[in-house]
Amino acid sequence: MKKTVRSIAAATAAAAALTLAVSTAASAHSDNANASASASGHPGKRGDGGYGYTVIRSGIPDTARRFTVTSPQVHNGGTFPASAWADAFGCSGGNQQFTLDWTGAPVGTRSFAVTMYDPDAPSGSGFWHWLEWDIPGSATSLSPAATPVGAVSGTDDAGLTGYLGPCPPAGDVNHGYQITVYALDTASLGLPATTPAALTTFSMSSHIVGYARMTVNARR
User: What is the DSSP code (8-state) at residue 126?
Assistant: First the structure.
């Protein structure tokens, strides 16, 4: 009987120790995740609106040179005008593409690409809103008035081509939309407009020699 009691006590102590170890490990994992998320520029578990963040690799190589992008309608750190918001997913904006102007691209740039990406979309992989590529290397702007000859308007994550404005979930955290112009070392990616966004950006990653970026905010 004494042996049985001692065995039960030992088993209980071992279980308690294991529970403490698992709890400690989980806490450490959570803290590490929050630290990683913070390092990536995203809020961690305590400010995620109910969805955790996952740190993913950048598609831009460290060797890429920075240049400058501006727009008459939007600016870095600002918000979108109503005309640029989506007219879908519960939003009633104008879904009007804005103009982008860029300067200082690296010498030897053979083409440009443009994307708008929402890393804060609760999808596990963000949300691609806009992709254009094979923009001639001589270009210094992209306007809704005219698509450059040879440029390809890609398919976004909604299955649509062309520009799709922001429309984050109602009541969600602020979404910072990354609008990026890429300078590429190839005249063409050789991809059809129906290419999925992830495959397009993956194919582009090995050709990026420079980039310009602004982050524009939206919340509702």
Answer: -
